Amino acid sequence: MATEESCIAVAVGNPDNAEQLVRTAVDVARDRGASVFVVGVIVTPQESPLALFTDEVITREFGGERRAVLDRAIEVASGTGVPVSGRLFVASTPARGVLHAVRERGCDGLVVGWQDRSRESAILGTNVDRIVRRADCDVLVEKIGALANGVEAVLLPVARSRNADLAASVARAIAVSNDARVDLLRVVDSPSAEAESSARDLLAETADHLAGVPVETELRSGEVADEIVTASQTRDVTVLGATRTGAIRRRVVGSTPRKVGKRAEGTVIMAKKGDGSLLSRVFRL
Fold first, then answer.
1. DSSP for the chain?
2. What is the pLDDT of residue 99?
3. pLDDT > 70 in the chain, percent
4. What is the pLDDT of residues 134-158, one digit of tens each?
5. What domains can be seen in the chain, in order of their start residue?
6. Fewer CB within 10 Å, N or C, the chain?
7. pTM, 2 dp
8. How would residue 284 be classed by pLDDT, with cut points 50, 70 and 90?
């Protein structure tokens, strides 16, 4: 059970996705008895004339638009029964501001949004890459797709990785909050008897950790990203853990989650366990 100091930070800036990001943070925080800390960042590049002013003056005199988004996000969370607070931070980049906020508050988890408009050299976008790579806490990167009025099914592709338990706990939190089911999917490269047996064992093992929510399981063979994208078409949200093995170790999320995030039309949440602790207090199963 989370301690009373536990909190989930959520970075908001784009008014089009702030509400959904906050709802994800609330779902996870409620499941673990944590609070939500809404973070807004006023960017003042070092060469900007605003850099001559104090943070207090910048926030008061130039933070109107960011303040409006922050206040609206706090309002969305306020009616959920989960403790919520928020603050504007001043920094030279969005990533610096978000990382400073998380460390200052001592948050256990962070929810950030991702829009696929990054440079060719970036994995998720320069700021999100930096946040995921440098954050000590667990990070959920959410690409918001077309959401219906509610969530009926959460797709959870299963794999053996250090981020698998984090992804499973997030899927469970969303399902509990929305009275939805979790659909477990395991994709194998070739339909051999040995591979299928191991896959079914992993599906059963994961299902055992999802007590309290309806669970359905499915085994497919083929290219992993292709099958996940296909399965995501009939689910409202897809949650999958980051992969950091082999040739893709230098990447912040791994090739499969990135491919799914870019190609899936629905909402996709990529989960990466924090490097600052061996066990997350908030997202522990």
1. ---TT-EEEEE---TTTHHHHHHHHHHHHHHHT-EEEEEEEEE--TTSGGGGS-HHHHHHHH-HHHHHHHHHHHHHHHTTTS-EEEEEEEESSHHHHHHHHHHHHT-SEEEEE--S---TT-SS-HHHHHHHHH-SSEEEEEE-----SS--EEEEE--SSTTHHHHHHHHHHHHHHHT-EEEEEEEESS--HHHHHHHHHHHHHHHHT-TTS-EEEEEEES-HHHHHHHHHTTSSEEEEE----GGGTTSSS-HHHHHHHHH-SSEEEEEE--SS-SS-TTT--
2. 95
3. 80
4. 898 999 999 987 655 678 999 999 9
5. 1-113 (3.40.50.620), 142-285 (3.40.50.620)
6. N
7. 0.84
8. very low
Which residue has tokens 């301690």? 3
